[in-house]
Amino acid sequence: MKNILVTGAAGFIGSAFARYMVNTYPHYNIIVFDKLTYAGNLNNLTPIDDEPNYRFVRGDIADRDAVRRTLAEYQIDTVVNFAAESHVDRSILQPDAFIHTDVVGVYIMLDESKKHGVGRFLQVSTDEVYGDVESGYSVETDTFLPNSPYAASKAGGELMVRAYHVTHGMDTVITRGSNTFGPYQYPEKLLPLFITEALDDKPLPLYGDGLQVRDWLYVEDHVTGVDAVLHRGESGEAYNVAGENELHNIDVVKQMLALVGKPESLIKHVPDREGHDRRYAMNCDKLRAIGWERRYNFPDALAETVRWYHDNEWWWREIKTGDYLDYFKQQYAARLSADAD
């Protein structure tokens, strides 16, 4: 392992992984490959701009020529694929973009990696492939039951990874992360959206009764989980990267508001989104068995996240303009003017 292509690493989790890898493994060359869609932001990579073992290449994982060219030019021996359309709400509005990137793009990355002789291919996936978990905890061998176009597209990408492992003998591994939060997260997801709206004293559009349960995982713990699988995961296997910190959405929002110093009266219950899963929860004993442990507890990680958004308005105010405002209006304007069922 020497020349590692990290796709989608101008986004939230991918950029955290790129920053971590550049600083932790100076003997690796980290080549970031990103299309720079709305959620890709080169500011996320500014902290490593001047590091000698980092390079950035703009490209789309569904562009076969760009993928082939990059694999050859940088003599890539390892691929870590974060590149994905990843927001459930947007997948309901525009599912074709998710199929294009999360299924077709994964296929092209696999196919070109096989031809190029890439040694290890790590696919970053999500707990949402398991679907709604009424009780107990999802384990890696559970059946996929995705309930949104996003979750279905990620499941499709995973199945393609399995097929290339079984059919072609590729060295593949998969990680399935739980609900991740932290600095540099695009402000369409719950916490960055609500933190930035609360800082401006705007209403917080909470879906339904807010009692949906999510397993909250700090981004720095997520990336060390990916690192553990990259270096020690068994070929052909998948590993859950779980926060094991289940909380109702409304309780997370209330904790956040207390840290921001804003009243709970900002919470506005709005009509729920279509097909909204009630609970996700995963068991991550398999990941712990290869030496991974979380380092952050939820209260401290939440406080650090709130502090980061408070101190870095330059980052998110630049984002929350133009197309972002059009999306926000499309997703929330009618809901904010209605009452939750």
Q: Would you mind describing this structure in some detail?
A:
This protein is of the alpha/beta class and 341 residues long. The chain folds into two domains: 3-180 and 216-241, NAD(P)-binding Rossmann-like Domain (Rossmann fold); 185-214 and 247-277 and 297-329, UDP-galactose 4-epimerase, domain 1. The chain is 43% helix and 17% strand. The chain contains twelve helices and twelve strands. The strands form three sheets. It has a seven-stranded parallel sheet with strand order 3-2-1-4-5-6-10, sandwiched between helices. A three-stranded mixed sheet has the order 7-9-11. The chain is globular.
Topology order in helix (H) and strand (E) letters: EHEEHEHHEHEEHEEHEEHEHHHH
Proper CATH architecture of the largest domain = 3-Layer(aba) Sandwich
Rough outline: globular
Query: Which structural class should the secondary elements be placed in?
Result: alpha/beta
Query: Order of strands across the biggest sheet?
Result: 3-2-1-4-5-6-10
Mean pLDDT over the full residue set: 96
Oligomer: single chain
Please tell me how large the radius of gyration is. Answer: 19 Å
- Overall CATH class of the largest domain: Alpha Beta
Strand content: 15-25%
